[in-house]
Design a protein that fits this description.
By secondary structure, the protein is mostly helical. The protein has helices at 10-39, 43-54, 60-67, 71-83, 105-111, 121-128, 131-148; strands at 87-91, 99-103. The mean pLDDT is 90.
């Protein structure tokens, strides 16, 4: 539960906000480290596996959309998972450029060992915020991103890759 300490200056408020960002980043990092330690896969790989398990036959584009990542990122995840024999790809019969993804029994067994949530703790927590809080947070973060002059394409990288 956040403490309700009234900051006395802009500097104090900035320091408090920075500490809160550190807490959030540490929670995200700790979750992904725990996942990797338990199953030997990165968080984004586990998330991709869970999406493929939940949507058998999903295509590459839909996987990218489901994970809200760039298609090349999804393709790289799939390449690693296929190399580890955790998924199989079946070519579409009518258009050989399209593939249908399926998890293997080995992946199913691995997913039972993963401490959830599969998509990570931050997306799961954001989903629990009330809509007005989420809207305010989004607006405030957009302002911060503008001040940082940050590359917004980084928003399509899974947190587990940071």
């Amino acid at each position: 539960m956040p403490r309700n300490i009234a900051p006395t200056s802009q500097s104090t408020q900035s320091s408090q906000a920075l500490r809160r960002f550190r807490v959030v980043f540490n929670a995200v990092r700790s979750h992904f480290k725990q996942v990797e330690k338990q199953v030997g896969l990165g968080g984004a790989q586990v998330w991709a596996l869970s999406v493929i398990r939940d949507q058998p036959g999903i295509g590459m584009g839909q996987l990218a959309k489901s994970m809200d990542v760039h298609q090349s990122t999804a393709s790289n995840l799939v390449r690693v998972l296929e190399h580890k024999e955790l998924i199989r790809m079946n070519k579409d019969e009518t258009d050989k450029r399209h593939v249908h993804l399926h998890v293997t029994p080995q992946a199913m067994a691995l997913l039972t060992k993963v401490p959830g949530p599969f998509e990570g703790v931050l997306p799961a927590a954001l989903d629990q915020l009330n809509p007005l809080t989420l809207q305010r947070l989004d607006q405030d973060l957009a302002e911060l991103i503008a001040l940082l002059r940050a590359d917004e394409t980084a928003g399509q990288l899974p947190l587990a890759h940071l």
